[in-house]
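Researcher: I've been going back and forth with a colleague about how Carboxylate--amine ligase might be arranged in three dimensions. Neither of us has a model we trust, so I'd like an independent prediction. The organism is Thalassospira xiamenensis, in case that matters for your notes. Sequence below.
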Amino acid sequence: MKKIIITGAGSAQANGVINCLRMANSGEQIIGFGSDPIDLVMCDADVRYLIPHSQHPDYKTKFLATLAALKPDMIHFQHDLELWTALKFRDEIEATGVRMLVPDFETIDTCVHKFKSWEKFKSHGLVVPENILINTPQDLKVALENLGDEEGTIWLRSTEIGGGGKGAFPTNDLNEAIEWIERYDGWGHFSAAELLTSQTVTWLSIWKDGDLVVSQSRRRKGWAHSSLSPSGVTGVTKIGETCSDPEVEEIGKNAVRAVSKTPHGIYGVDMTYDKNGVPNPTEINISRFFTTIQFFAEAGLNMPAILKDIVLYNRLPPKEAKMRNPLPDGLLWLRAMDRAPLLTTAAEIRALLNEAP
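Model: Here is an independent structure prediction for Carboxylate--amine ligase. You can compare it with whatever you and your colleague have in mind.
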């Protein structure tokens, strides 16, 4: 029996991947690695291992020792910080015999640091909002004067590793911006950018040795728990919608090639539309699936299973299969706490609802 390790087990990102592998029903043993015991017991892995957090001094030793003992066939990382940490000793990981589909460390380092990604996008001619790295209050003043919209508003965000809209905050007030950055001890670790619209799209793709294997686009129609975040961005999609757009596909491919000479692995290109209706790449979620990956699997495109087949069996999808936005447009994935997600359509929603008298 083949063994697959999924890290960050119990988190929303990892649970979706595990659920997709369960749906494939191809007989592999799923092993969950995680540093949070409560998260671990909530995942659907066959076996669970409590591993120190990737920033703990014992992480590398415990991680490698567990790999050596288990002799897994495949490992898949679902958290940026752990991926970035572990791939620093990639040779030692691969020496245990485990396989993975990930790009080189330079690509990973570029993608997990958003300002580095932006520099790559801009240097390759992609349409992106202007950005300024904020080292001092004077940089903030310059950003507000030069990047602000009609109301003088700019978009602040952390450039450090982390998801969920880390540090994101729209503001047109210098003192408020200074307080926000100091709250995070963030001088030198924040950027300011031109404010884009609220319309977003993600182009998710898997590549092997420079060739695109599969891709699918998804609009985000809303954030869950948005009222809890000053920016409204939480990193938790409330409503996702399948879509296809040749422009999004082309920009996605160009963004990937901007950061990676030979794309290899998973690249999720997040884009936000500007006021001219052009999707601007804002970041690439590297070597991991987004939290709503089960959406695609339930709709008929199981990307974790495709990844597994490539890594374990060197098996690609059939050549005759449609692998560029294969899902129909307009499928909706609805999420809420304490209930299973719902795959539906706008028409089905209208049919379920009754108008109040």
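Researcher: What would you highlight for our discussion?
Model: I'd start with this: The chain has three domains: 3-100, 130-194, 200-352. After that, consider the following. The domain at 130-194 is CATH 3.30.1490.20 (Dna Ligase; domain 1).
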